[in-house]
């Protein structure tokens, strides 16, 4: 069984038992094992080929997950700025913080 959920402004396909990274949940203060519920389910289907498509969301459908790691750092992104003929260069970096969750159930 699979579901397509709306999370952090994007869409993501999830299956039961899958570990996914989501945007930082509760500011990184969530404890291990805390439940997370995704109510915005766009499509829910099974391996047989049948699927329920919502307009825009499937009524009564939800995806539950559990927090594995409250705060995980993503890959480092380097930002370079250069202004020609000005002798001006700068370099900054950024590491996004995520929460690692494991999908425990699909309902719908």
UniProtKB/TrEMBL annotation:
GO cellular component: ribosome
UniProt KW Repeat keyword: no
Pfam families: Ribosomal_L21p
Signal peptide: none
Sorted UniProt keywords: Ribonucleoprotein, Ribosomal protein, RNA-binding, rRNA-binding
Domain of life of the native organism: Eukaryota
UniProt cross-references to InterPro entries, sorted A to Z: bL21-like, bL21-like_sf, Ribosomal_bL21, Ribosomal_bL21_CS
The keyword Iron-sulfur belongs to this UniProt entry's keyword annotation: no
NCBIfam families: L21 (TIGR00061)
Entry's family note: Belongs to the bacterial ribosomal protein bL21 family.
Protein name stated in the entry: Large ribosomal subunit protein bL21m
């Amino acid at each position: 069984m699979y579901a397509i959920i709306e999370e952090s402004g994007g869409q993501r396909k999830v299956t039961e038992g899958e570990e996914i990274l989501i945007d930082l949940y509760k500011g990184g203060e969530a404890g291990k094992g805390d439940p997370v519920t995704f109510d915005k389910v766009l499509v829910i289907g099974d391996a047989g080929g049948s699927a329920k498509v919502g307009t825009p969301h499937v009524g009564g459908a939800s995806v539950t997950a559990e927090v594995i790691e409250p705060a995980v750092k993503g890959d480092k992104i380097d930002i370079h700025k250069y202004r020609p003929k000005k002798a001006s260069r700068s370099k900054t970096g950024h590491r996004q913080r995520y929460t690692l969750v494991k999908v425990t159930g699909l309902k719908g």
